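Format is sequence with structure; example below:
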Amino acid sequence: MDTDPKASVFDAVVAIDSGVDHLLQYSAVRPEDVRGLVHGAMYTRGPGDLKHTALFIGGSNVSDGEAIAAIARETLFDPFRISIMLDSNGANSTAAAAVLSATKHVALEGTQSLVLAATGAVGQRVCRILANGKSHVTVASRSLERSRECIDRLVASGIPSDRFTPLASTDAASLSKALAASQLVFGCGAAGARLLSAEQLAAAKELRVAIDLNAVPPMGIEGIDLMDKGVQRGERFDYGALGVGGLKMKIHKACIAALFESNHRFLDCQEMLAIGQEILNSAK
């Protein structure tokens, strides 16, 4: 189910490459469409065979995807269940891959993290995973009001409020102070949006990991290359969008495969993080 006017080609190709035998794509899905579509999926096979059917929720708007997922989950009941994966805009799999890349170098607990463009789809998920890992997260947005609204949503999901600090990234002094105190920085901005200059990055002496998830020049964090994958520069390890992208694709494909292991799974960002950790553990 895709909430955009045209169903995603990317999501379809990944599904096929992950071994899906038959792909049914529905675009422009609205909340009022969901129950009927889910009923069509859950009543066409017996309970023992429903693990062969799964629901992927995509589209560019994460909030719309979350609404679709909530209705889909409410529609299901025992024994008629199918597994569901929510990855609107690739936000969950990308965020999981980004944070897991960082944890190759730094344990999250007790760290200070700065998330730039944190109120976007990927940024919100990065903030959630970091805070659940007991990192203190500075939630940076051009608007302090939007930063606070983002924190309110994260706290409403059950994360303690003292794990977050709001920040207006347009306040240069506050941004410099937050960056100077951080061990981790994540650039989660829109394509082509510059978030940090090379000078700002070089001045952040406490940084151990810098990750830029923007794949369109100019880079969101100047000085990080698109292809960087754990490139060490002094005491800091750098990742560009494609450096994170390989793990993101592995997580995406593994999660699709996991949907067909049972008919009870719901895969959101934390579940994708766990699957990503299994991938890393198996590679050791």
Remarks:
- The domain at 93-244 is CATH 3.40.50.720 (Rossmann fold).
- Strands lie at 54-57, 83-86, 112-116, 136-141, 164-168, 184-187, 209-212, 229-233, 236-239, 266-267.
- The first strand starts at residue 54 and ends at 57.
